[in-house]
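Kindly inspect what follows.
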Amino acid sequence: MANNTHTLAIIKCLSYIKKDTSSHLSFKKIHHQVQKLISCNFEHLKLSLYLIKGESVKKGILFFDLDTQHDFMRAEGSLYVPGAEGIIQNVSKARRFAFDNGYSILASTDWHDLENPEISDSPDFKDTFPPHCMAGKPGSERVGDLGKLPIDVVPLEPLSDAELHKLIDKKQFHIVIRKNEIDVFSNTNTERIIEILKPKAIIIFGVALDFCVRMALEQLLKRPGIKTYLLQDAVKGLGNIPDDEIINKFKAGGVEIISTSDLRKNIQ
């Protein structure tokens, strides 16, 4: 049955190419896509058809939604980021822009247990913090408009290449990466997802600006070829480093500082 499915997909692909006299694809590129069709599973077949037919997968631009969870974003949360409740509307606005324009969202969430080194009853609020975003508890839930796309979860454990491709080889996706450390790249799946996607631009927003957001930006700036945007009206910090100081530092380092109202003008 699988072979029949592959054959039908290839026939459909070739039929489209034959009819599409305006196609700019070279024969070499077409041949490459057909080879991929033969060797891939059905999810990859669908993606290849999107690419050959010229439909936009929009993986060149990725929205990165960091730690927008109840315990950080709501005033009653166990590790409330001052002022974060006031940016929930803009966080939702950024997500809706992505959803409505066909862009994908990669999100991170803290997913702690009491054994994590970061969790402490005597926190210093630099390396250790009170219990927050505990796995499966209400405080770990994301806030704001989450849209209607199915949300897939990347666990703490490393996934295989096939498992990662199944999550991201889609025209549009909404994925949550769980982590039990401050840095989202502490989950090794994050690095591999970025490597597979090879985005040309990443739009970052969320909390806390002086911890998770800062670390994510520092990691991304090490990767040539990725243009980074920071949504200044959809981020807040805990105050260890003033928000303006962090924003100005990243601006000097090449990060494009924009607001949610600038998305349509800057991200197309």
Residues 9 and 45 are 7 Å apart (CA to CA). The chain has two domains: 2-52, 61-266. Residues 61-266 form a domain with the Rossmann fold fold (CATH 3.40.50.850). The longest strand covers residues 227-236.
